[in-house]
Amino acid sequence: MVVYELSEEQTNKVFRALADATRRDIVRRTLHAEVSISELAASYDMSFAAVQKHVAALEVAGLVSKIARGRERIVRGQPDTIRHAQELLTSLEDIWRQRISRLDDFLSDEAT
Amino acid sequence: MVVYELSEEQTNKVFRALADATRRDIVRRTLHAEVSISELAASYDMSFAAVQKHVAALEVAGLVSKIARGRERIVRGQPDTIRHAQELLTSLEDIWRQRISRLDDFLSDEAT
DNA sequence: CTCATATACAACCATTTGGTTGTACGATAC
DNA sequence: GTATCGTACAACCAAATGGTTGTATATGAG
Question: Which of strand C's nucleotides are less than 7 A from any protein C-beta?
Fold first, then answer.
């Protein structure tokens, strides 16, 4: 399986974008179904422009994409980028697991 | 399986902490083996105090813990918190998968 | 055509972030 | 005891973040 690595800068943007409850909620909603920016904006207690900025941050991170439909912009969640972030976390967990298995080896050596 | 949910604020801190290449590297190294703060500081092109702040951000997020050993502070990666973040990303992916399966249902209804 | 809607974007502002240097203090080495 | 090492923490600063309002523009409705 070929994994397309994200650049460090791209990775920063992905995690940064996920570090906000409103943005995480936008990702959830746009993964669930296509939503326009104004529909999103109606849900949060902040200005339209603020929501627009959150969507822009998510778009730059690759967590959502926008397509024009008439005068609306439809926002779609991008599961691939989520998966990239997940793979990075998995690689961290693997480091831990390798450490544990090294420790097991050490202990079984000890026992002989 | 009981999953201990992180608060929104705690989740913000975890992702925020991961949104920096130096901090991700510190997590990698401290998951691999125990390292003192000064050992960490020697690796990065910034002041000791700056590295100390990065470690503090990771500690507040629950991604590392510190224990005193003599005059040193040993930093340990905390795989549990990594797993919490991973579970959140998995729940996002699940939302996507449910959408796909709804779409499949729709298409098979269409076919009948 | 005119009006309302959906979006884009600039300018502005307060707060947070990420770095710096300097100072203080406990633990270890000599 | 004194010097050194490892850490903690405060004060400071520039840049980024997350919100605001205001203005412009394109699309759809009537």
Answer: 5-11, 17-22, 26-28
